[in-house]
Specification:
Helices cover about 20% and strands about 35% of the residues. It contains three helices and ten strands. The strands form four sheets. It has a three-stranded antiparallel β-sheet. It is globular and about 40 Å long.
Length: about 110
């Protein structure tokens, strides 16, 4: 199953160049890489990336993240996937731009 990570352009460029990342500044501060399920990712974009253009959406293979992937309560008590190691290029199934159109992010078709 795929879970998702949103990177800002500089974070994406750093990840693409290095092949791994500890995530955004908030991820580093919290000590884990914040991820979202397919059902959560659009709300994540709206809450934490509102009005931001130049984003990249990464689909990550959940199975490759075990045992460092933990499901922990967050927004409203919902369980969110948190990765307690660096995200690696080989964990990524695909990536796609997440353009801002009319004030909302346009997600790629499944």
């Amino acid at each position: 199953m795929a879970i998702y990570k949103i990177f800002r352009a500089p974070e994406w460029e750093e990840f693409a160049a290095a092949g791994h990342s500890l995530g955004a500044p908030i991820d580093r501060q919290d000590g884990f890489v914040h991820l979202s399920t397919a059902e959560q990712v659009e709300e994540t974009a709206a809450r934490h990336f509102a009005g931001e253009d130049g984003l990249m959406l990464l689909a990550v293979d959940e199975g490759r993240l075990v045992p460092e992937l933990k499901w922990e309560p967050s927004r409203g008590g919902a369980l969110f996937p948190h990765l307690y190691r660096e995200l690696r290029a080989e964990d990524v199934i695909w990536s796609a731009p997440l353009p801002l159109e009319g004030g909302r992010h346009r997600f790629p078709a499944p």
